[in-house]
Specification:
The protein is α+β, with helices and mostly antiparallel strands. It has helices at 3-7, 98-115; strands at residues 13-14, 18-22, 27-36, 39-43, 53-62, 65-79, 88-96. 20% of the residues lie in helices and 48% in strands. Strand 5 and strand 6 form a beta hairpin. The longest helix is centred in the last third of the chain and has 18 residues, at 98-115. The protein is globular. The protein starts with a helix and ends with a helix.
């Protein structure tokens, strides 16, 4: 087991959705590789420096309803170049409102049940 796997306490759900990431200096749109209740990994984006604080926004659609997930996060992992076959960054959620947290839980439950 790798040290990265040992550090993880939450199972990650493969999940591909667009996410907007904002810092005071940059705004970028990326695609998630996976997500869990404590964070996400975005792929095919040049990673921000470690410990960069950021705002994360995922906008999901359910029929006519838009379901936003908004959180404050911190960059905790960088993957550059061809390491592990992708480039991107891991973001740990440090603050999330109750509504966003409930939406995230629903997404994870639904997708976990669908995968079984």
């Amino acid at each position: 087991m790798s040290s990265t796997q040992e550090k993880r306490r939450q199972s990650r759900l493969p999940f591909s959705v667009d996410v907007q990431i904002r810092t005071p200096e940059h705004t970028t749109t990326a695609t998630t590789k996976d997500i869990c209740t404590t964070g996400l990994f975005v792929r095919e984006v040049e990673p921000f420096p470690l410990d960069t604080e950021c705002e994360v926004e995922i906008l999901l659609s359910s029929g006519d309803e838009e379901l936003p997930i908004k959180a404050r996060g911190r960059v905790v992992r960088q993957v550059e170049g061809l390491q592990e076959g992708l480039q991107g960054m891991g973001i740990k959620f440090v603050e999330m409102d109750d509504s966003s947290q409930e939406t995230l839980w629903q997404v994870i439950r639904y997708n976990t049940l669908s995968a079984e």
